[in-house]
Amino acid sequence: MTQTPEQERAVALEWLAKHCPIELKTANGGLVNGDTVLINDFIQASHGGLWSIQALNDAVEKLRPQLTWKSAAQMEYEKVYNALTADQQNIFGAWWFGPSTKRMLILDGDPGFENAAEILKWSRGKAFESHTFDLAVSNLVGNSRRGLHLVQESTFKPGRHSGEQVEWPKANRSAFEAHRDSVPRNDSAPTPKNTLSVDESRWQQMAEQLRGDNHSQDDQLARIHGASWRQTFELRQKFVRENSNRLIPTR
Predict the structure, then answer these.
(1) What is the pLDDT, as a whole number, of residue 164?
(2) Same domain for 79 and 44?
(3) Tens place of pLDDT for every residue, the chain, 251 residues?
(4) Is 42:63 a contact under the CB 8 Å cutoff?
(5) Rg of the Cα trace of the chain?
(6) How many CB atoms neighbour CB 39 within 10 A?
(7) Based on the domain organization, do 56 and 137 belong to the same domain?
(8) Are residues 115 and 187 in the same domain?
(9) Cα–Cα distance between 40 and 249 in angstroms, integer?
């Protein structure tokens, strides 16, 4: 029995939508690249290259120790983050980039996910802006039940934030990326950095720090420009989302 590429793809997409454990899924609904390769190879070796829901479930069961599973902290963060509107995701992302946020809070791994989730929970029902997140940090630092993971707890001074940009933590990048549809591509270059407003400089920083799955995608990202840096960020973000590795069968 043979399958066409279309049949294999249909099986993979049905499994992703209905049967794949949520703890394996990335923010775009696929799998991380390493897991994709492992499962593809397992089906070729153990199921004669025939794709089925049963074969995929078998692959997950047999490869469980080698696959990339989300932690409870990441699952909780994504639940809170995905409940935000696209504009709110962008507002929070811009604040999270701030250098004083990096100096104060641990951003990587489970402590980073826990910090972000607690700040977002505290901010519910309040004005969704940087000042609110600053207040969240100030209030949560001394809370024994919902405290935050700090970089240097002995020297931390709450309430001091500059609003400049720093690199998004690579380990958490895909989980923390804002999810927003973008406008059609415009190849005209955005305004040079030295003439930008503070707001536009923030969008430039976010656009320049997006990364693809490999060097080729990074090169393609660098060539994507919109009419403004905000539009450039949205176009590049869409490219990253649409070109991330998903579980698509290969022969």
Answers:
(1) 32
(2) no
(3) 788 989 999 999 999 999 999 999 887 788 888 899 999 999 999 999 999 999 999 999 999 999 999 999 999 998 999 899 989 998 998 888 777 777 888 888 899 999 999 999 999 999 999 899 999 998 888 765 677 888 864 344 443 333 333 233 333 334 334 333 333 344 444 444 445 666 677 778 778 777 776 677 777 878 888 778 888 888 887 777 777 554 544 43
(4) yes
(5) 20
(6) 26
(7) no
(8) no
(9) 6
| Same-domain status, 228 and 203 | yes
Helices 109-123, 86-96: crossing angle, 10 deg rounding:
120
- Residue 89 domain flag: yes
Structural domain for 106, as ranges = 70-165
Who's near 206: CB < 8 A, 6+ residues apart? Answer: 93, 94, 97, 165, 233
Instruction: Collapse the DSSP code of 105 into the 3-class scheme (helix H, G, I; strand E, B; otherwise coil) and give the result.
Output: strand
CA distance 43 to 73: 31
Is 38 contained in some domain?
A: yes
Final residue of a domain: which of 43, 66, 89?
A: 66
pTM for the whole thing?
Answer: 0.55
The rounded distance, in Å, linking the Cα atoms of 171 and 190 is 29
Number of domains in the chain: 3
Residue 213 maps to a domain: yes
Contacting residues for 110 by C-beta, under 8 A, at least 6 apart = 71, 73, 74
CB atoms within 10 A of CB 65: 6
Q: Does residue 174 lie within any of the structural domains?
A: no
Q: Is there a single domain that holds both residue 90 and residue 61?
A: no
8 A C-beta contact, residue 192 and residue 156: no
Environment class of 210 (CB within 10 Å of its CB; exposed 0-12, middle 13-18, buried 19+): buried
